Amino acid sequence: MEYAIFFCLFATAAVHGQTLLNATARYPELSNFNDLLSSFPNLAAGLLTNISAGAQRQTVLVPSNQAFTNYRQRNGASVSSLSSSDLGNILNYHTLQGALSSSDLEQPSGLVSETALRNSTYARRENATDAGDSLPQVVYLSSSDTASGRKISARQVNALSSVDVRSGEGNEVELEPTPGNWSGGLFYIVNGFLTLPVNQTDTMDAANLTSFSRGLARTNVTEGTNAAKGLTCLCPRNEALGPLSNSNGNLTDGPGSLLATLTRHGLTGSYYSTNFTDGDLIQSQNGYPILVTRRNGSIFLNDAQLVSSNYIANSGAVHALDRIMGFLNTATNVTTPANASIYTNTSNIPTPPATSTAAASTSSGGAIPTSNATGNQIVASATSSGSASISAPAASGTGAANTSGGNSLKHSLIGIAIVTFASMIALFAL
Questions:
Q1: CA distances (Å), 93 to each of 97, 125, 219, in order?
Q2: What are phi and psi of 375, to 5 degrees?
Q3: What is the DSSP letter of 110?
Q4: Mind listing the pLDDT tens digit of every residue in the chain (430 residues)?
Q5: What is the spatial distance between Cα 201 and Cα 427, in angstroms, rounded to a whole number?
Q6: What is the DSSP letter of 348?
Q7: Closest to 94 in 3D by CA, of 66, 116, 64, 121
Q8: Which run of H or of E encompasses 10?
């Protein structure tokens, strides 16, 4: 019944404009995509799930013929050999919420966009606070121009050579920044298929942040970490964390232990680089403050620099740091980075702010477990609600609008107007 409804939508969408299949049929380099949707009509209909009066428009990332070739060479089988369920998840991940124009891709810090992927295997970022529905999975888009720090004017939009789209395991595909139009929004050609997100530790391993995942295993909290919903891990690079992660010293006892260090690098909620605002204080899972500093295009968390970011995990994100974070001296004025003092000696570990003794609820965000399998306790986890001065990502979504400056709302209103106008024309025709 559900697919039948989708198919009706798919068949009647041409009343208000051309369908996605009709629009992409004009591009010879997209023939494999059209063949795929023609072979799986239910999947094609599913792309129009949200196309209705007042619904948000969509941006579809359409894989080129080269993308199909790359997939077959990489996996030893064609994408059409996948089950309809797997194909549905992939196509949902290629469907972004909102009609993202070329100018939307100019964001200097990149753009985090929600997708239509809500399958709980791949989207466990956290639960929405209203109806309890899980939040959709995201992708991170950044142009090579904005990533290099070059300012782009409105007249230079068409000069963008390509945009990188980062998905699961940190894999990236290139997007051609010239959009095509269809009745449900826009589409862009990409040269590869997006990778469905995996759990936190597999994401760390894919990003070569193995010292962090090894530390979780040595302290017996791997399973709990991967089971958490809404979790961000700030992983020092292997050369920085390796000596502690490989040490036979203190694993779980007290705030200087390996387990406490790992927990201090965990954030409750899904934080992407776009969430880190200069001067913000963020609370670690075991209660220590983390000061965000943006300087010359770089992001610092306390004294550690973010050297690689936005590895999309099924429950949130993984970022790489150049070192183990120092401790923030909260006795000084930390409202501005210039007045912040960083502890670099672990013997000067400050007492974390007073927090609830209860661990953070996984319904609003996950946590690296506060005890390992043997019951060794560490400082209690705390959510951002423990202090009014602590920032947290927005509860409903990515913490950054799908399109900066209210474009999502703008596109929704435009969509309403277009549908309403088309309906009036149809009535006059009768």
A1: 10, 14, 34
A2: 90, 10
A3: -
A4: 333 333 333 443 443 468 888 899 999 999 999 999 888 877 766 565 445 545 678 999 999 999 999 999 999 999 999 998 999 999 999 999 999 999 898 888 899 999 999 999 999 997 544 455 679 999 999 986 443 333 333 334 445 678 999 999 999 999 999 999 998 899 999 999 999 999 999 999 999 999 999 999 999 999 999 999 999 999 999 999 999 888 888 888 887 899 999 999 999 999 999 999 999 999 999 889 999 999 988 999 999 999 999 999 999 999 999 999 988 876 554 444 444 445 444 444 555 655 433 333 333 456 776 544 333 222 222 222 222 233 344 433 444 333 333 333 333 333 433 333 344 333 334 4
A5: 56
A6: G
A7: 116
A8: helix 2-12
Alpha helices in 228-311 (DSSP H): 238-245, 258-264
| Cα–Cα distance, 267 to 279 (Å, whole number) | 17
pTM for the model stands at 0.76
Q: Could you tell me what percentage of the chain is helix, strand and coil, using 3-state DSSP and rounding each to the nearest 5?
A: 35, 20, 45
> Which of 179, 173, 233, 246 is closest to 207 using CA atoms?
233
Residues 87, 45: contact at Cβ < 8 Å? Answer: no
Cα diameter, the chain:
81
Can you tell me which residue has the tokens 């000069």?
A: 159
Beta-carbon count within 10 A of 15 CB: 11
How far apart CA 401 and CA 98 sit, in angstroms, is 10
